[in-house]
Specification:
The protein is mainly α and about 80 residues long. It contains three helices and two strands. The relative contact order is 0.14.
């Protein structure tokens, strides 16, 4: 059976963007988390390395932060430990 030839895409046409649902949806990157907390990227890295902020490792290198964990960190840092459940 012969197939009809596929039309060649025009170079001036944009391909539609396909948004893939990611496993990390809702999680924040290091820079997003730093902005969320109002601290610098080196500071959030220091807190992460000292174990002060919980984080999630996706794959071998990608680090993400749950906003709920960041809110709990903020409550602990501001002296409201019972709100940090």
């Amino acid at each position: 059976m012969l197939r009809a030839p596929q039309p060649t895409p025009r170079t001036d046409e944009k391909k539609p963007e396909i948004k893939k649902e990611r496993k990390t949806r809702g999680l924040l990157s290091t820079s997003e988390a730093a902005h969320y907390l109002g601290i610098s990227i080196p500071t959030i890295r220091k807190y992460r390395n000292k174990g002060r902020i919980p984080f999630i490792t996706v794959g071998d290198k990608l680090i993400k932060y749950d906003p709920a964990d960041l809110d709990a960190f903020t409550h602990r840092r501001n002296g409201n430990p019972k709100d940090a459940a």
